[in-house]
Model the fold of this input.
Amino acid sequence: MLTRYARGTFNVDWEDRYDFPALRRMRVEKAQRELAHSDLPALLLWKDENVRYLTSLRAQLITGKTTALNGVLLAKGEEPILLCSGGEHDKALFGMPWLSSVHTIPIMEQRELTDGFVTSVLKPLLSDLKLSGGRLGIDQAPLCLIESLRNHLPEIEPVDGDVVMQRARWVKLDEEIAVIEESCALGDSVTQRALDETRAGRRECEVAGDAMQTLFHLGGEMAHVITPYVASGEHMSPPHRICTDKIMRNGDLCFIDIGAMWNGYFADIGRTTIVGKPTRRQKEIYTAVYEGLMAGIARMRPGNTNKDVSDAIVARIGRYGLAEHLFSLFIGHGIGMGANEPPYIGETLPGATVFELQPNMVFAVEPLVWVPDVRGGGGVRIEDMVLVTEDEPHVLSRVEYEDRLLL
Done:
């Protein structure tokens, strides 16, 4: 039976914790099954989460360049081939013996270097795999790479390959959930540190800095968001979604959304607190969001749909006359190796889909209501990590809610 708690981040001899070699194998096998069910012979992938999923590469990430730094080539029935920055090559050779093939590549942005990669690295690899023509699934790539493929490999047809990986990652393995539990333990700790440091006279950026110190101190890899989210007072009406030099003052609502990553898996946890005493209006908004979140989580059972969940949230918030004040963003999202990944809950944009919930789906559920012209801010979000099980939903995050803000 899956143990639903975080055992600890260390490798120890007295307890069986996380079997990462087995998890790596199972992830590749899962991707191979989805690839076998598709009409694609191979995938050329660049998104961080897909590269990590198939190779376990923990790479240095350069802001704004991540999907141009490292890639992986996966053909049906073959082992993943890592395509990595020169800065990762030696580490991969010496520290990642499970990789069967590692090739150095340039950053995929300069046309000449991109052409060199296609002609001198990718073309021979595809030839060895007997894939010199046909469809090649790609998840995300700069236009220069697509054009280079068309120029130098005209028999190759680039098509969407990310859908294959989304299907592989849609429902988590039990072993993945165990790691996500540990990520949530770190995410709870990061959130709690930020809550503990929230008080009048401190700046949003100071609180974010304290939280990030805890993240790295405990061995976390990165925050859920590149821009740690600490917003106080009127910065939640409308939400700023960053941290600034604004000073927190008495009467300010304050929202924290930083999260954590551990061994490639994300936790996305958010809490709203109050500096000093809340007003009646602030309590009404918080209570509406809290009750909406609880109503939504209660519907997160197999057989129900994402629409059932969002409808329950919106209806509950509507009892307080605040449904029209919901933030113009989906209410929940899938999460795992992707910090924010399909499927979605409460998406209202064209193309939104309805799907049935399945056991081992993991979501971050995050209703946000903001009301203008409330002194100290009228914006509240509460966010929990929720695992769909065969029975009742399992809330992975454990940070306390703010009782002072409940009616």
User: Anything to note?
Assistant: Residues 174-196 form the longest helix (23 residues).
